[in-house]
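S1.2 Input.
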Amino acid sequence: MDLRSDLLEARRLASEGEYDELLEGAKSRAVEPIRRRRIHGTLAELEAVDDRSARRIADGFRVALRDSFTAEQRATFERISERTSALQSDETEVTYSFHGPNDEGLTEETYEGRHSTVTVSAFPHCPARYGRLLTALLTQYHAPSVLELGTCLGTSAAYIGTGLDSGHLTTVEAGEPQVEIARETISELGLEERVTVRQGLFQDVLLGDGSVPNFDVAFLDGHHQKEATLEYFDALYDVANEGAIVVFDDVNDYSAGMDEAWDEISADPRVDLSVLTDRVGFAVVNSSISEAERVSLPY
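S1.3 Output.
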């Protein structure tokens, strides 16, 4: 908004007695320049790190902040948004099974037999803000091999696929209805050549037959429990390429357990660089960074 528009909006809110909304808007406009300065200061710190992974993360954030996407990517974003809206309005009932680690850890039997019937509209989706950030990150990484654990209905996979050039994403989901819908999402968006939706348990893929590819970028978005997240990180580390990055969803203010998981991961000596946003965390491993860096930014 320009100044004239701001003043007209403020006058409207005041005339309608919406003083709380007016105050919140004023606070937001006052805070936004401070937030942006913090972000750009942190990105400058990342760019100063003598490592290409750090620079790629910084450049990815800059692409997202400046909205510097290609026309093709913008068109795909629109189609992802339309697909997400359609799924959020879909009242079709589906029954899915819960899968996950039990108290003994990932290498033991998983719990089975718990089922739930919900509408398609009840499933979560990747917020566009963070989906575009994933696209921006992938445009900088030019990653040959990308792994996602937690496909759900395929919107995050679509954002990742949008950022790929010659690389390929393998995305893993255990739930049968989610896998079917995710494959429809990927097909509808024309991303089949870049994205493969694989049905299976995370622990089977990571610890089982050895078929999981070594990755350059991984996105962990499932089993939001502390111990599971830590064990998945251990398993992912074993198949991480040089300078690989692991992105963790919901590690900031999601739950006490996930906050603790991120605290342990970011302090792990195997993590050369960690970046924490308001929602997701980025962990760089196997890099040339000689002294570990830990940063956060309000994004």
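S1.4 Remarks. The radius of gyration is 20 Å.
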